[in-house]
Design goal:
Blueprint (H helix, E strand, L loop, with lengths): L17 H8 L7 E6 L16 E6 L8 H15 L6 E3 L15 E3 L2 E5 L9 H9 L5 H6 L8 E5 L3 H13 L3 E6 L11 H14 L6 E3 L2 H8 L6 E2 L23 E6 L7 H13 L4 E6 L3 H8 L3 H6 L3 E5 L6 H5 L4 E4 L5 H5 L4 H7 L4 E4 L4 H4 L6 E4 L4 H14 L2 H18 L1 H13 L1
Parallel strand pairs: 2-6, 3-5, 6-7, 7-8, 8-9, 10-11, 10-13, 11-12, 13-14, 14-15
Antiparallel strand pairs: 1-2, 4-5
Helix pairs in contact: 2-17, 8-15, 13-16, 16-17
């Protein structure tokens, strides 16, 4: 859900000597995010961090926390690890492809999880050379920092790594007797990649490299079953949420009884907006007052996805684009909607991933309109926390809109309550902390 957010700031405390301290104590930094965990269960002090000789490190390939779904996924895993006695520390470096620079090298705390920026790529003047360097992990700041370490960590967890980064870190782990965990979060089709080389690299990683990696964490049952059939007992870990975090608590928002408000948040490229908007146009022709809001995308982006502006022109004020917003604004915007929408084609990529926005929406008490992809049928029931499309057609979505209009009021409030309960019972960090702890210590 986080593609629309640039730079989230919450709960930050600075420590100017953190980088030198991190090097001294052996905290490893990789490409964008890392957790360093100790098995002692010692609590982190806000001004001074104490670490044990046994550390676990988590790595994830994104830069600014809150800017991507994967980084929010990581922060919740860190919280779960902290509950079961580990000590997580997230370490961040510049994202060379997005031109995001780390402002300074100060340690800060995000959601009570310490974060340490680790430096930047050394850039060339030519943008294509920079992309090649990034692809080959050449002059990677995380690897530079890793090679300076004297005290070895307990383990490394690498999130959806490229082949070059995987082999460099894998080699380092074997040399230094460090465990390497790899987390696999999605499996894109060829159309998702900008060129054939990157797609081929991803296919090699998914089909061969990860197949033989002994410590593999997967986000969906599809990936778990895929690797299990090939002899790899991968650990299943769906997106998590901290339901006690005030950020993800339901808002007491007064909904407008005169209009049915739907919302979509995140990167819009993969959803079936033609069906969504076409159904809204049908509903309006029946006299239903319905509005669709987009958070994190613009009208221009939607015109490119739809391949023309005709549908948007016909809908007029019934479609509203918030554009990119600060992540801290997100819950309040979402909470003014009756339902959040997630409609995807049933394909390998949608079966392999698990939308992180699902537990986030449920935790906020926002019912969902969706179709069953990934593992959603395992967690969601039609008429309870969601309205589920049986088929991907404008007619089916229009019928859902009619049901949603009838449900406004007490039934919608009950669905909101059930959505929140679903998040508490199936996606909360407490639900998985024990199994995570056992897996890390096995």
């Amino acid at each position: 859900m986080s593609a629309y957010a640039i730079g989230r700031k919450g709960n930050i405390t600075f420590n100017k000597n953190s980088i030198s301290y991190a090097k001294k104590r052996g905290m490893i930094i990789f490409d964008n995010l890392l957790f360093i965990l100790s098995s002692t269960g010692c609590l982190l002090k806000e001004k001074k961090m104490k670490t044990s000789n046994s550390k676990t490190i988590y790595f994830a390939e994104q830069s600014i926390i809150g800017s991507r779904a994967s980084s929010n996924h990581s922060i919740h895993i860190a919280k779960a690890l902290k509950i079961c006695g580990f000590k997580p520390i997230m370490l961040i470096n510049e994202d060379i492809n997005n031109n995001i620079d780390i402002a300074d090298n100060s340690e800060y705390f995000y959601k009570d999880i310490p974060c340490i920026p680790v430096g930047s790529y050394i850039k060339a003047r030519n943008i294509y050379i920079n992309k090649i360097r990034s692809f080959l992990s050449f002059n990677n700041p995380s690897i530079r920092f890793l090679k300076q370490l004297k005290d070895m960590p307990f383990a490394v967890i690498l999130q959806t790594p490229g082949l070059s980064l995987y082999y460099i870190i894998s080699s380092w782990c074997k040399k230094n007797n460090v465990r390497l965990f790899v987390e696999s979060m999605e499996w894109h089709n060829s159309k998702r990649y900008k060129n054939a080389i990157i797609w081929i690299e991803a296919e090699i990683r998914m089909r061969f490299v990860q197949r033989f990696h002994p410590k593999l964490i997967v986000i969906s049952r599809y990936l778990q079953n895929y690797y299990l059939k090939r002899g790899n007992k991968a650990f299943y870990l769906p997106p998590l949420i901290d339901v006690q975090d005030s950020f993800w608590l339901p808002r007491n928002t007064q909904l407008d009884a005169s209009v049915l408000k739907l919302v979509f948040a995140g990167s819009p490229q993969r959803e079936r907006h033609d069906i969504i908007l076409g159904a809204i146009l049908r509903a309006k022709s029946e006299g239903i007052n319905v509005v669709m809001e987009y958070v994190g995308s613009t009208r221009k982006q939607m015109e490119i996805i739809l391949k023309n502006s005709r549908l948007l022109d016909e809908l007029g004020d019934s479609v509203f684009f918030h554009g990119v917003v600060n992540f801290d604004q997100l819950p309040d915007i979402l909470s003014h909607a009756d339902y959040a929408v997630l409609i995807r084609d049933d394909a390998k990529w949608s079966r392999a991933c698990f939308p992180s926005k699902i537990p986030e929406l449920l935790s906020l008490g926002i019912p969902i309109i969706c179709n069953f992809t990934s593992d959603l049928s395992e967690y969601i029931e039609d008429g309870k926390e969601a309205f589920v499309l049986k088929e991907l057609t404008e007619e089916a979505f229009t019928d859902i809109i009619r049901r949603a209009v009838i449900a406004k009021g007490d039934l919608r409030n009950k669905m909101s309550y059930l959505a929140r309960k679903r998040a508490e019972n199936d996606f909360d960090i407490l639900c998985f902390s024990k199994s995570i702890c056992e897996y890390f210590n096995s």
